[in-house]
Design goal:
519 residues, alpha/beta, Ubiquitin-like (UB roll), Nucleotidyltransferase, domain 5, six-stranded mixed sheet, elongated
Length: 519
């Protein structure tokens, strides 16, 4: 590995003091030593530091602790001191549409000092990206929605620092990863043209910014790294996810899926990366049914059904009385309804098999998942035939996206040896259930690896590894984006996938066997 890449952003440098025979300028003396340490030809010094440098060098006996960062291969010396017990920190941020997560990191030890999460304050003006972009188009709207996120960050940064016993002024580096629209709103850039043909962002690769420029209250010379996006529908959160997964360094071809507002997919290895996005997200997040909701206490996250008796076993987060169901619970429910014969291959309710759980509401058949006597809402928690139809369409879209991107490079889904699943979706989903309804390919279960919050993981890597910052640019430059809207094969594949698990049962041999055994 190239010299300098293996260390962190904080380096201890010992200089030979000047003499009459060696009257090199203070700045040149320090940058010369840093160039040798880092293995680079380019080191710039923050001007604020330059004014204090003579005193720092002499009071420290020419032994200094240097705080560095870089962009596009060029290093920047942000600050230097004599070195003491003061923590030099960095902050990694997952800039989610619904929720933000902040991770405070000691830049010397590279250990996590603490984490905090909070609901995105922009929800108050719009629950989703589209509503927020339209709000930003109103007079004063962009300033207001930008202020909401900046104020929310500053408040929670102060709270997190208080919990960890440091000050915001001890934070020198800040890395943030979010989708394209969210990063635009964070920077105060108008995202108007992201949602209008031909769907053009203001910027794909923002330069490293001073925190003060964006209104973030950290150390006055702190720098902010904003993960780049690839166009309107593939954001920095996915770049961070690729970095975190190591997909970009893998010899073997693997796939990464992150389900949120859309289903976003990356396929590739260390030599190439192919990406695409499609509308399969909301239903798989739990938005398909009236009882669907985001994961939280009392939300159903796991379901199983005894195939002989059709008795339901419900699990909720924190074992609270049920109030609704999230995406993982919904996928479990659909899988077990199918495997127990309570729905057929089209996802249609089998009324005789469902027995007393069928309820007619306004002329529409509903299946009672949790009766009112066992529900925290004092009402039945049900799923309708229309809900199931929507779920089948969403799972078909998910599988078709995966099938289309792999076939575009001549790969068969079942040949993949590694399948990364990111985000909340990846943390809670049971791959076996997703396979059973034909949403994910029929791979061995150990091929699936949940990454958790890969956006936060990638943002954290940018603070703990100098090499990672170089990798961000390489990842961005190596991605080819596949546009599904103009893909002629997509709709043909989609029609074939609108069955459980699929019209081509040979694609799901393990599901065929389970289904035959259980009914």
């Amino acid at each position: 590995m190239e010299k300098g890449k293996n260390g962190g952003w904080v380096r201890n440098i010992e200089l030979i003091p000047p003499t009459l025979q060696d009257n090199t300028a203070d700045a040149d003396r320090l940058t010369g030593a840093l160039k040798k340490e880092l293995g680079t030809e380019f080191v710039d010094i923050e001007f604020d530091l330059l004014k204090r440098l003579p005193q720092i060098l002499r009071e420290s006996g020419y032994r200094v602790r240097c705080i560095l960062f870089k962009q596009h291969g060029r290093w920047l010396l942000l600050d230097a001191d004599a070195g003491d017990d003061r923590i030099i920190a960095g902050l990694a941020v997952d800039l989610g549409t619904t929720r933000l997560v902040l991770r405070l990191i000691d830049l010397v030890s590279k250990k996590t000092l603490g984490e905090i999460s909070f609901d995105n304050p922009q929800i108050s003006v719009g629950p989703d990206i589209l509503a927020r972009i339209h709000f930003a188009d109103q007079e004063g709207g962009l300033e207001k929605i930008n202020r909401l996120i900046i104020d929310g960050l500053n408040k929670n940064i102060e709270n997190l620092c208080g919990e960890c016993g440091i000050r915001p002024a001890d934070i020198y580096l800040f890395s943030i990863a979010g989708n394209t629209a969210m990063t635009h709103l964070f920077m105060g850039l108008n995202p108007r043209w992201i949602i209008r043909e031909p769907y053009i962002p203001v910027v794909n690769s923002p330069d490293v910014k001073k925190a003060l420029t964006l209104g973030i209250k950290l150390n006055p010379i702190a720098r902010i790294l904003i993960f780049p996006n690839i166009g309107s529908y593939f954001g920095g959160d996915l770049i961070a996810g690729i970095l975190f997964s190591g997909l970009n360094k893998s010899d073997d071809t693997a796939i990464l899926v992150d389900v949120g507002t859309n289903a976003e997919v990356v396929l590739g290895n260390k030599n190439w990366l192919m990406a695409c996005a499609g509308a399969a997200g909301p239903a798989l997040e739990g938005g398909v049914t009236k009882m669907g909701m985001m994961a939280g206490p009392g939300v159903i996250d796991k379901v199983s059904i005894e195939p002989d008796s059709c008795i339901f076993h419900i699990h909720t987060i924190e074992n609270k009385t049920p109030i609704g169901i999230c995406g993982s619970g919904l996928i479990d429910l659909a899988a077990h309804l199918f495997l127990s014969g309570m729905v057929d291959i089209r996802g249609r309710l089998m009324l005789a098999r469902c027995n007393k759980r069928i309820k007619d509401i306004n002329g529409i058949k509903h299946l009672v998942v949790v009766p009112e006597t066992e529900s925290a809402t004092n009402a039945d928690l049900t799923i309708s035939q229309a809900d199931l139809d929507s779920l089948v369409r969403s799972k078909a879209a998910m599988y078709t996206i995966l099938e289309t991107i792999t076939s575009s490079v001549g790969i068969v889904l079942n040949e993949l040896s590694r399948f990364y699943v990111a985000g909340t979706f990846g943390s809670f989903i049971d791959p076996r259930s997703a396979i059973s309804i034909g949403m994910l390919p029929d791979l061995p279960i150990d091929a699936y690896l949940s990454l958790g919050n890969s956006s936060l993981g990638g943002a954290s890597m940018a603070l703990t590894s100098c090499e990672s910052v170089d990798e961000i640019d390489k990842i961005r430059d190596s991605i080819t984006y596949l546009e599904l809207n103009v893909n002629q094969e997509f709709m043909n594949r989609f029609s074939a996938a609108k069955f459980l698990p699929h019209t081509n049962k040979s694609l799901f041999p393990s599901v065929k066997q389970m289904h035959q055994e259980r009914i």
